[in-house]
Amino acid sequence: MKSEIDLFFLGEEMGNLIENLKTAFGDDFIALALFGSLARGEGDERSDLDIFCIIDNLPGKIYERKKLLSKIITKHIQRRFSIIAKTHLEFLDHFSSLYLDLGLDAKIIYDRDDFLKKKLKRIRNILEKAGLKRERDGRDFFWNWKRTPSQGWEIDWQGYRELGKRRTV
Length: 169
Hints:
Blueprint: E1 3-4, H1 12-25, E2 29-35, H2 37-40, E3 49-55, H3 62-73, E4 81-86, H4 88-93, H5 98-105, E5 107-111, H6 115-130, E6 132-137, E7 140-145, E8 153-156, E9 159-162
Parallel strand pairs: 3-4
Antiparallel strand pairs: 1-5, 2-3, 2-5, 6-7, 8-9
């Protein structure tokens, strides 16, 4: 099932961008979400737009990806933006700490087959089981534990675990 939402502050621009990405990448275009201050409803006219997308068969070099996607995005978005683009396999291969923020902030604009929606739900579940809570200090955020792990720890798509112990999620 495809899910799309229209964010009031971007309106038609975002709809046109999605259509151009579908045209450019076809079935390789899996998902696009916004995150950061604008997605949280905290941005202003000076805020940049933070874009996260999953598109298969992207160029291997990050610079080439950004160049390719920026060419499409700048036709539709009239504000500063930053983009993080992953392939489907890259997204699943490495659990970046960025994903924790995406789990809380991401506003899905396009999501073929609800792939990203399911993964964001998984991230929120992992955060809950790990006892991690994002807190604010002025304009900055930090992660705080309900119960600080006694040893090292790791989080991946399998869940959260304290090193030296069995997985708890």
